[in-house]
Each structure stands twice: as structure tokens, then as C-alpha cells.
Design brief:
88% of the residues lie in helices and 0% in strands. By secondary structure, the chain is an all-alpha fold. The chain has one domain. It is rod-shaped, with a radius of gyration of 37 Å. The termini are far apart.
Length: 112
């Protein structure tokens, strides 16, 4: 090997090392991007699960409130008609339901 070839060989090796480092860096970036996409997908899935669970809980709460509301209205209607048999049960029920709706609207901030 001639002495002229040594610098050229060193230059070629340096270029090869630089290219190898560039390939490794590109691979690391690609892995990082894939990991980020996977994390994002898992996060979106988790958010969807939380939204679904929240919707289910809200529906169950709404159902339970409806049941309690109907029981309370029936109890108030029975009390009112027992106290005054001349009260029209349908009118009294409508009046009680309206009052309950107004209270619920005030409590939830959904007044019309």
C-alpha cells in the first residue's frame, strides 16, 4: 500500500462511519416516531374509554334520578290528594312536575 493511499483510505473510512451514524440516527428517529404514534393511539383509545364510561355513568345517574323523581312526585301527589280530595290528580301532578323541573333547572344552571 502506498503512502498516498492512506489518507484516501482514512477519508473513505470516515465517510463510511458518518454514513453509518446517519443510518443509525435515521433508524432511531423512525423508532421514536413509531413509539410516539403507538403512544398517541393508546392515549386516544384510553380517552375514548373514559368518554364512554362517563357517558354510561351519566346515563345511569339520569335514570336513577328519573326513578327517584317519579317516586317523589307520586308521594307528593298522594299526599296532596289525601289532604284535599277535590284536587284534580292530573293537574296536581302537572303542577308538581313543573315545580320539580324548575328546581332541577336552578340546581343545574339550565334555567330557560
Amino acid at each position: 500500500m502506498a503512502t498516498d493511499d492512506i489518507p484516501e483510505l482514512e477519508v473513505q473510512e470516515a465517510i463510511n462511519r458518518a454514513l453509518a451514524a446517519e443510518r443509525e440516527a435515521s433508524s432511531a428517529v423512525a423508532r421514536s416516531e413509531a413509539e410516539a404514534e403507538a403512544l398517541l393511539a393508546r392515549s386516544r383509545e384510553r380517552a375514548q374509554q373514559i368518554r364512554q364510561r362517563g357517558a354510561q355513568r351519566a346515563a345511569a345517574l339520569h335514570e336513577r334520578y328519573g326513578q327517584l323523581r317519579e317516586k317523589r312526585i307520586a308521594r307528593e301527589l298522594a299526599r296532596a290528594t289525601a289532604e284535599n280530595p277535590r284536587i284534580d290528580p292530573d293537574e296536581e301532578k302537572a303542577r308538581i312536575e313543573e315545580a320539580v323541573s324548575r328546581v332541577a333547572a336552578r340546581l343545574t344552571g339550565v334555567e330557560s
